[in-house]
Amino acid sequence: MTVREVERRRIVTVFGALALAAAAGGAAVCALGGTPAAQWARNPAAWVIGAVLAAALAVFQRPAFGAVALWAAPAGLFAALFNPGQQGVHRWIDPGPLHINVAMLLLPPAIVAFAGAARDGAGPWIAAFIGLALLTAQPDASQAAALAAVIALVAARTGFRPLIRLALIAAALGLAALAWMRPDPLAPVPEVEGIVGLAAALSPAAGVALVLLLAATAAAPAILTARAPSRQRDAGSALSLGLLVWVIAPFLGAFPMPFAGLGPSPILGAWLGVGLLAGQGRLS
Question: Fewer Cβ close by (within 10 Å): the C or N end of the chain?
Answer without folding.
Answer: N
